[in-house]
Design a protein that fits this description.
- The protein is about 25% helix and about 40% strand.
- By secondary structure, it is an alpha+beta fold.
- It has a six-stranded antiparallel beta barrel.
- The chain starts with 10 loop residues before the first strand and ends in a 6-residue tail after the last strand.
Length: about 170
């Protein structure tokens, strides 16, 4: 079942279209090349941003991250599942803003609980961030998975393209 999301200005690239391949690869390079992103949540009539270490599945349909339970981030995620994860490559292009690329992945976050369901996401996150092992093992930490509704890729400061990962058929 697709996730409802608002329309976007700019070009939408269909997953089945061969033109999607370069865009998908640019998105893949960003989300695999940058270890951290800003998780955007909302609640109490305010938006909130948090730095997170993340990992994406190979098909880019899901992202995983962990957070301490005793945080505003956890509370907001528990109250509102709709999130955005922003990843950019600013550090690579500090002297030329026109070369900076960013991607915003929108979707719904859900806490993952239970040993069998947790194994794969934990391993995915640890493969990228082995330094998180003790954090992930702690009872005071929670693991979340974002089911991605769409990616908004921005390049040259204003060129926006949208890509929606399709469910495998």
């Amino acid at each position: 079942m697709p996730i409802e999301d608002e329309p976007v200005l700019g070009r939408t690239v269909d997953s089945d279209d061969t033109a999607a391949r370069p865009l998908v690869e640019r998105i893949r390079q960003l989300v695999t090349g940058q270890p951290f992103g800003v998780l955007c949540t909302h609640g109490e009539n305010l938006a909130y941003g948090s730095l997170v270490a993340f990992a994406f599945t190979g098909d880019l349909r899901y992202a995983v991250f962990a957070t301490p339970v005793a945080t505003r981030k956890y509370r907001l995620l528990s109250e509102h599942q709709e999130v955005a994860l922003v990843v950019d490559d600013r550090p690579r292009h500090q002297n030329d803003m026109m070369k900076v690329e960013a991607v915003t992945a929108t979707g719904r976050a859900e806490e993952i609980r239970g040993a069998p369901e947790m194994d794969d996401p934990v391993q995915l996150l640890l493969a990228r961030h082995p330094q998180l092992k003790n954090f992930l093992d702690a009872r005071s930490s929670a693991l979340f998975r974002i089911r991605i509704a769409r990616f908004l890729h921005v390049s040259r400061f204003q060129e926006v393209n949208q890509w929606v990962p399709q469910d495998p058929s």
